[in-house]
């Protein structure tokens, strides 16, 4: 049986979902007008889930996370975390956050920063353990001002781990990191997810959602346009891609096909009839190693957030048949 947000029975704090957003709306004044950043969002994240929030700039991702963290309140609707008001969950140390900027003192070392913040928690994780689990032990003596952007993010990760939170909220956590730093960050985050923590993260790196998130929620104009298992979101646009190696003259022209960015030295085409595209290519002597596959998350994301109406794809309530 499923319930609407208005009729769903209230769970006890021990049974409540990690995040529950019902009919949330939030607007801001801009240029003499009021812009609605979040426009009627319903979202339920169960304990232990790993969920990615995707959307273009201005989609409402950061505003939604700000409400989950208690930085701001919705104009309408409700936001609950772990069965309580967000600020109550934060004060109890049940939520940890890794944000894009701010919150660090340049004159302190990494270890001094973690040690100072640890004093604010009732029963914090040992400082050295927090540094180790966040991948920050190797530069613990370095001044914050001398740390790279990626190192500062790992420091923020260590701070978020101090209260041993049940829920980790990450807003563009790897922005500014190089490929190696991103890989190391997500390796550490994988370990925390395996400990059973709930992880909700917003990202512009679509490969991060595809590789790390079990579930993906896509926002556009403050509304949820897709909410499903990440593999299902990838297929929601109904797009397939024909990829192949081309030995003939450039450009490759195939009737009814639209080009996509090449990858790995392979030409990539899509269109309403990928079988017809494949038949055309097989009739030429220049196409080699031809493959047809579902589009990646990037193509699905572009399709779902294009400037045309899309019916929202809702995720069934947990426990619903």
Automatic annotation (TrEMBL):
Alphabetized UniProt keyword annotations: Antibiotic resistance, ATP-binding, Nucleotide-binding, Transport
Record organism: Kocuria flava
Signal peptide: none
Any one Gene Ontology molecular-function term assigned to this protein's record: ATP hydrolysis activity
Localization, UniProt: Cell membrane
Domain ABC transporter stretches: 19-246
GO cellular component terms listed in the entry, alphabetical order: plasma membrane
Pfam families: ABC_tran
Membrane-topology descriptor: Peripheral membrane protein
One record GO biological process: response to antibiotic
InterPro entries given in the database record: AAA+_ATPase, ABC_transporter-like_ATP-bd, ABC_transporter-like_CS, ABC_transporter_ATP-binding, P-loop_NTPase
Name of the protein in its database record: ABC transporter ATP-binding protein
